[in-house]
């Protein structure tokens, strides 16, 4: 059932022993939302704890600074920024049909929770800002850092088209609480591990262009991942690279997940349909971003891709 911000605030005010679920492969928005609301609930004297199926990357550690871990049997289950119970991941899947309240900004939310607070805005943290206010809790600097992190990361540092007047107004309020936005944005967007650079170097070296530069391919082999000790987060932004080169209409990333098993990600510019292209290889997705799975050596996989790419561009191989 869909509810309003004031209803969500009332529900949380009368709840106790609140378990806060975040989505797998956690990002700044799910974590910022979770820890901000956790701090607000604890301020009201309640027990509350944020949990995640996956290990949280250490760059987010400041989000829960000063929050100790609490053990209790949950009486109320809150999910934040989780559009689909599948996104809870393995460890939290036991709560899939037990969520009392979900606060989320994805239009694709599957309405799995008993109560749903849904607004299509830039970040769940924008909504949490409203819920904390409606609960009558005064924001402190730590909550402001959590909320700013989610808003900044989900808007690509206020660059994406989801950024609205309200996004900036909330961010301005948070800055007014004395947070160090420069340090947050540097930690979220600039600092990368040595593995990230090692992997990126190999990825750029592997780049190939086809069809008069209208198509670019990048390979990340299983061996590349092993030799650079790269983690999932070190792949950040790689799928965008081929399309960043001037003149490229179709960008392809070929990532070897296990020896001989490849995950292909395709990014296209208008009018090329990535989903239609990938469906010819057994995959699918969205008009501008889609994917498929192929097997073989790098060369064999490329040889399966090229005719489909040529057809999509309307050129001969
Ligand atoms: Mn989000």
From TrEMBL:
Coiled-coil ranges per the record? none
DDH domain mapped to chain residues: 18-151
Name under which the protein is recorded: Phosphoesterase
Q: Membrane spanning segments where?
A: none
Recorded hits in SUPFAM superfamilies, A to Z, give: DHH phosphoesterases
Pfam families (UniProt xref): DHH, DHHA1
Q: Which GO terms describe its molecular function?
A: nucleic acid binding
| Domain DHHA1, residue spans | 227-305
Q: Which InterPro entries match?
A: DDH_dom, DHH_sf, DHHA1_dom, Oligoribo/pAp-PDE_c-di-AMP_PDE
The species this protein belongs to is: Solibaculum mannosilyticum
